[in-house]
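Review this fold:
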Amino acid sequence: MSKPKGVLAIQILAMPADTNAHGDIFGGWLVSHMDMAAGIEARRRARSRAVTVAIESLVFIKPVYIGDTVCCYADLVKVGRTSMQFKIEVWTLALLASEPKKVAEGLFTFVAIDEHGRPHPVERGPTMDK
């Protein structure tokens, strides 16, 4: 069985208010949590504000259902001068399931910004990593 890569950045319960017209969890809800997970890790890594500049890939693998525990894992894959790229994996655990399942993944790029909203360098040393 495969396991999530990265650190657990967000864990939340999928609720009825989060559904689409067909009763599954709305994809936009899931994307917003993926972006938030990446943002939390980008801010921690940059030690400053960080903003989303791109979602370079996004794949929905399986549906998410009401009552699933939704877990977003963030894995830092690249650090540029002012940018950071994270692979976000979403795994769910149903109440009676014995194993989690991977339901989505995406590649999110953030830029570190200063108090004036301008990009600033991100430290690249090993002491700044997880």
